[in-house]
Write a structure and sequence with these properties.
alpha/beta
Length: about 700
């Protein structure tokens, strides 16, 4: 590990943050340097501070501590994320024999210079009690590998000599702040303090000094580790060999729906029993695959995390599944039940006195033997964070295992962190969206209606796998929704007339999100021709997409949904033409009527495994310039010519044709899909028109 300090960059930060002064500007700079190195901190871990001077309302100078706000991320922190707290009232607290969490937060908040600031870090007192201008705290992996041991001090001493103090695990907050200050005062020559099984503190009179002490100490720890291990530990170099990369990708397509189904929980809601599901993020790199193939993997997975900071994201133990179990629904459920029973036991032993409310007892991280690691959560973002933490965790556990004996926090120590209200506050208020944890697959997603369905499903909190034959048009849709999608949108180009491509589409969806719950066969094409002039090949093509393609998607959906055993929703896009056909539109009307009939058959057949199948009949959905309706691009010119209208006139004609006389938007169709996907009514085999009201197309 090398220092990334650059005088030019430092000056650039001082220019950029001129308004707050150099002391804070450089604090922001080295916070970014620390935060952007995943070997030092991940996802909001760690904290930093600077002691400086601020002016109060009367213009008097006040000593303040600018310390990272709770819940912000060092990699992106801005000056506003380093709230200023009056230093003196904080330091006075040290005289207290003890201080409860609520009182500590009150004291921190009442010392803030601005009432609009976020809560200062739970480690703010530790920063305040140390005398240095700059204090840096990280959860450096190399330090954790050395200290997650039966004797945490031994390897630290060998690696870092007398440069640091080593403290045993102490719960963060007031007790840790006092212990660190006292230890430092007894040995003020040290450059840093190692907190066993937690991380590292360094300090200095300048931003650069404190930062470079972190780098120097971590570099020495890394060098020591390399030297002791003689390179990568056996667990990480593929002995015994994991599956090949290609085999891993195929395996997760098969296994993730099974595992995800086993992790879903049937919950009582005001609308009856509903599945609470989770979405997956899989990491299948060589390193984690090698780890997971090793005989020691199971035991290390089941052990507590490398630093308690991870517990609210990943839980303590990860669930280890042999490959034969991960593809067997019954065996997989038995393993999940065993994990849940162990978690409940842990909660009752160690956490119940702290909290009356047990957190979700299902595992957040699953390690698949010889394949890799998969994180699960109700949102893609939370799953990605857990995966980001789990991946290096496995490496550090392997290193600690090779160095001596991996020895993390005890269950009691971990429970104190997992159920610490100040730690849980970092997750923020959690209001789950309607379709949280659900995965939707939409075909024909590059068309106007498809895009409207994608938009509505994303807005309802679902993960969406958007497929279309037309890659470039799909890219337009992906670009439009990417900012709002928060990583919950994936796209793939597939031809639904090809059964192998449809199987690959569901496989890709399963590999990306873990499975599927909501399937929207929506792809369709149109052809304008009277019967007397109908071209056989064109007719067959329309049937191949609109009818046979729908059948392919229904068939493959049935396979995947049955594997999960958690029911599901299918919403077929038919058309107003299924009930009210149009002259010159035989291929489309007949193929959509057949698709509608297939949906009704699916409703009959799939009910036995809890899948509801309904139909949306839309009409006159034109889309916009960026994502226009392909149907209307095909049909429009003919209709305009027949009626002597321009494009705007045609839209107006169709609007006025309906009872409600309102335009039908793609998003309207999407909302109909969301309604069915919410499963708030026990409805299957139904047709919902989204057409502004057309008497001749009333369902019958
Ligand atoms: Zn920490």
């Amino acid at each position: 590990m090398h220092s990334r300090w650059s005088d030019d960059e430092a000056q650039e930060y001082c220019r950029r943050y001129q308004a707050v002064g150099d002391a804070i500007a450089l604090r922001v700079y080295t916070s970014h340097l620390l935060g952007r190195d995943p070997e030092l901190v991940l996802h909001g871990g760690g904290n930093t501070s600077v002691k400086t001077v601020a002016a109060d309302l009367l213009g008097r100078s006040v000593d303040v501590l600018c310390v990272k706000g709770s819940g912000s991320d060092l990699a992106q922190v801005e000056p506003a994320g380093l709230p200023a707290v009056r230093l003196l009232p904080l330091r006075e607290l040290r005289a207290l024999p003890e201080l409860g969490d609520a009182a500590m937060v009150d004291a921190l908040r009442s010392a803030l210079m601005s009432s609009r600031s976020p809560n200062p870090s739970v480690e703010a007192l530790l920063h305040a009690f140390l005398p240095h201008a700059y204090v840096d705290h990280t959860h450096a992996h190399a330090i954790l590998a050395l200290t997650d041991q039966p004797d945490p001090e031994r390897h630290v001493r060998a690696a870092l000599g007398d440069a640091v103090l080593v403290l045993p695990w102490i719960m963060p907050g007031f007790p840790l702040a006092k212990a660190v200050a006292l230890a430092f005062e007894q040995q003020p020559q040290v450059r840093g303090i190692v907190l066993a099984k937690h991380g590292l503190f360094t300090f200095g009179s300048t931003a650069r000094e404190s930062y470079e002490r972190t780098i120097e100490l971590v570099d020495r720890a890394e060098t020591y580790l390399r030297h002791q291990l003689g390179g990568r530990p056996a667990m990480l170099v593929g002995e015994p060999a994991p599956l090949s990369a290609a085999e891993r990708h195929l395996f997760v397509q098969q296994a993730l729906p099974v595992v995800r189904g086993a992790l879903a929980v049937a919950a009582e809601t005001p609308f009856g029993q509903a599945w609470q599901r989770v979405v997956a993020v899989a990491r299948l790199g060589d390193l984690v695959a090698s780890f997971s193939a090793h005989p020691a993997a199971r035991e290390l997975c089941h052990s507590n995390p490398i630093t308690p900071d991870h517990v609210i994201r990943t839980k303590g133990p990860y669930l280890f599944l042999p490959r034969s179990v991960a593809v067997d629904g019954d065996a997989c459920r038995r393993e999940v039940h065993a994990y849940v029973a162990a978690y409940e036991n842990y909660y009752h032993r160690c956490a119940r006195q702290r909290s009356k409310h047990m957190l979700r007892p299902q595992p957040n991280v699953v390690v698949l033997e010889g394949v890799g690691v998969v994180a699960f959560a109700s949102s893609r973002k939370a799953a990605r964070i857990a995966a980001d933490l789990a991946e290096p965790t496995l490496r550090v556990k392997a290193e600690a295992h090779a160095l001596g004996r991996y020895t993390p926090l005890t269950d009691d120590e971990l429970a104190e962190m997992e159920y610490w209200p100040l730690e849980l506050d970092k997750l923020g208020a959690q209001v789950e969206p309607l379709l949280a944890g659900q995965v939707a697959l939409v075909t024909g997603a590059a068309g106007a209606i498809g895009a409207g369905v994608v938009e509505a499903l994303l807005a309802a909190g679902a993960c969406v796998f958007a497929s279309d034959l037309d890659g470039p048009r799909l890219a337009v849709v992906a670009e439009r929704f990417a900012p709002a999608a928060k990583g919950q949108l994936a796209v793939g180009a597939h031809d639904i007339t090809d059964p192998a491509a449809v199987a690959a589409m569901f496989g890709a969806c399963a590999a990306t999100f873990g499975g599927v719950d909501i399937v929207v066969p929506n792809a369709g094409i149109a052809h304008v021709s009277r019967l007397e002039r109908m071209d056989d090949a064109r007719f067959a093509k329309v049937l191949a997409v609109n009818t046979t393609g729908t059948m392919h998607v229904l068939r493959e959906a049935a396979h995947l949904l049955q594997k999960q055993r958690t029911g599901g929703t299918i919403v077929v896009q038919a058309s107003k033409n299924a009930f009210a056909p149009g002259a010159g539109f035989g291929a489309y009307s007949a193929s959509k009527a057949a698709a509608l009939q297939l949906a009704r058959i699916a409703a009959l057949e799939f009910a036995e495994f809890g899948v509801r199948v309904n139909v949306v009949n839309a009409d006159a959905v034109f889309g916009d310039d960026q994502v226009p309706s392909q149907l209307w691009q095909t049909v429009g010119p003919d209709r305009m010519a027949a009626r002597g209208l321009d494009a705007a006139g045609l839209r107006d004609f169709y609007r006025k044709r309906s009872l409600l006389q309102v335009p039908v938007l793609p998003r309207h169709v999407g909302e109909a899909v969301v309604f069915f996907a919410s499963q708030r009514t026990p409805t299957t085999g139904a047709v919902l028109p989204v057409d502004g009201g057309l008497p001749e197309a009333f369902p019958r």
